[in-house]
Amino acid sequence: MPSMAQGELKSSVLNSKSPIASRFRMRQKIAEHRKSLPIASVEKRLIEEVQKNDILIIVGETGSGKTTQLPQFLFSAGFCREWKMVGITQPRRIAAVTIAKRVAEESDVELGQRVGYSIRFDDCTSSSTRLKYMTDGFLLREALLDPLLSRYSVIVVDEAHERTVHTDVLLALLKEVQRARSKQEGVQTKAGDEIGVKRNGGVLRGCQGRKVSPLKLIIMSASLDARVFSEYFGGAKAVHVEGRQFPVDIFYTVHPETDYVDAALVTIFQIHVEEKPGDILVFLTGQDEIESVERLVKERLEHLPEDKRKLLPLAIFSALPSEQQMQVFAPAPTGFRKVILATNIAETSITIPGIRYVIDPGFVKARTYDPSKGMETLDVVPASKAQSLQRSGRAGREGPGKCFRLYPEREFEKLEESTKPEIKRCNLSNVILQLKALGIDDIVGFDFIDKPSRGAIVKALTELRLLGALTDDCKLEKPAGEQMSQLPLDPVYSRALILANNQFNCLEEMLITVAMLSVESIFYDPREKREEARTSRNHFASVEGDHLTYLSVYRESNEFLEKRKTESSEAKIDKIMKKWCKDNFVNNRSLKHARDTYRQIREHVEQMGFNVSSCGNDMLEYRRCLAASFFLKAAQRQMDGTYRALESGEIVHIHPTSVLFRSKPECVIFNELMQTSKKYIKNLTRIDHLWLAELAPHHYKTDDEMNDFNTRDGMLQTEAF
Ligand code: ADP
Ligand code: MG
């Protein structure tokens, strides 16, 4: 606290309850914590290495202080002089946010000032921001507006071992940006050049009139295999930061568990009742699972004797409202044990202090893509060995720990060594559109660290052409393709908004739809109250399908909120809304997230010059717009009651959570395909099958037109291409 006078400090220390004294203690604690981190002892050496090398790879054990400390070292070493920034990318939104908050706290500055973050739909930076945490996807988008990324003196690509598709594309792009910047070093940019990003009321941040300077790249990774990155960057130097790791005892189950959620619950209580103090970290696969475990822990606690109830369940997953995100980091109240229910975010991205026990059911939610069928699914699959080791390591950060793997030991040996890079198992249409917008036309020849298959590239190009983003010779279509690349959404959703605006006059409804589809589940569906939930939700249900049902939920909640807005404080409104959600079996966190997302996408489209209008009650236009947008995901009922996805020809089933589960209409469009025991389609709307040929004539023809003699009347065929 350099500005504090000595006398003031002394008297405040005497009065230990004064706010100044408590702030002083907190600052002291933070300074001690920073000094105790393994990375602190190598600060000088690391800075020297950054100065000597244009590309540096830093490998270090999770929790050693890479993400929170290195950017602060760079700031102190002068890498942010004048207008320059250090950008740090994270694969996950929530890591970017929570880490920026922590670093702002450590640096004793207000978040959004010197230290800030930018993620899709949420920008917390200002013209004074010098350390900017962001998602890798966000930086890619920024490159569209400022191809040289000229504000950054250093870019740190963090968590590179995760190998998300955005990280992979970013690495290739940064290689080019670095080359271009060193070639143009010293060139004066024109004063009027509008380089930068226009957001939040039009702040322009670029480096107008300044000289181009070289770019430093730092690649950080938790895994021990730096070779792949080093080779990719032409033998770049790699340094290791030693971590501190205490022994962790690993326990396995004797038999495989049929219900790992239940097994996790049993283990939580077993630890709570039998083991010494220390917090528990449980790895689950997503929001639904986390919330159901959170609820079940609370319910079971009520049946324990008073003195055993001191267990505090806390959730952390990407769609968690921001005011709840930091709760997991706060120490548990005296005598309490925290049980943190997390997705794989807590594997390496964020480190939560106090963990001594880890429960690892051994699963993860992962994207898989079959380019031959054009079908992407999000499935729960076994975690890899590398992931399991990271997970158990979390128990030994501050002392010896225990990890409970909820599967037999022999299963561990069968796990894959590490996770396949995402670029090898996802739909590429989004990144290819980004690359096209960046002026990179030769996708097959692009310098990917791991090349995606040719089939996947061809499929994505075809899909982009069908969606109207690319011309027949695979150039960016103007203006549609350009607009689609600017929206931070999957191309199909961008297309839906563009069509809603240009053709169907239902942009308001489509914005709500896209926002509602961006959350994991809008309805709250407790296992034990399924029937009650279903009945209470009946009044939202639309015979036309799930999209209209979501619209009703959003609209009704909005009306409810509007009526109360004038009469209550914000905190009270939150409470009222929570109750409304509970009564209606709607997931409060998801609805809140959807509401935020709606606001942000609306801002985007308004900036693009769209006029947000509503089709009111004309749901026919809205459904036609859905058909015109999602025509690649249409399915038709078969004789036996199953459905055939028209694009892939696969047999699929309507998911039991859909409002169309019982009525089984003849033809539907859907947004999600899920593989469990069968292939299920989710988020459906009933459409007239003739609309497909009418609204997507470039892709569908009716039999009549094809003069095909042997198929059912009116049956649709996808055109070969
Ligand atoms: P690495 O990137 O090497 O995995 P980090 O820089 O993320 O390590 O974390 C360093 C240390 O900072 C860890 O010990 C962690 O517990 C602590 N830390 C990080 N974020 C917070 C937070 N929000 N609150 C308290 N401690 C935190
Ligand atoms: Mg880190």
From TrEMBL:
GO terms for cellular component: nucleolus; spliceosomal complex. Pfam families: HA2_C, Helicase_C, OB_NTP_bind. Residues 267-439 form the Helicase C-terminal domain. The keyword Cell division does not apply. InterPro entries: DEAD-box_helicase_OB_fold, DNA/RNA_helicase_DEAH_CS, Helicase-assoc_dom, Helicase_ATP-bd, Helicase_C-like, P-loop_NTPase. It is an enzyme of class 3 (hydrolase). It comes from the Eukaryota. One of its GO terms (molecular function) is hydrolase activity. Its EC number is 3.6.4.13. Residues 47-242 form the Helicase ATP-binding domain. GO terms for biological process: mRNA processing; positive regulation of transcription by RNA polymerase I; RNA splicing. It catalyses: ATP + H2O = ADP + phosphate + H(+). Keywords: ATP-binding, Helicase, Hydrolase, mRNA processing, mRNA splicing, Nucleotide-binding, Spliceosome. Belongs to the DEAD box helicase family. DEAH subfamily. This is RNA helicase.
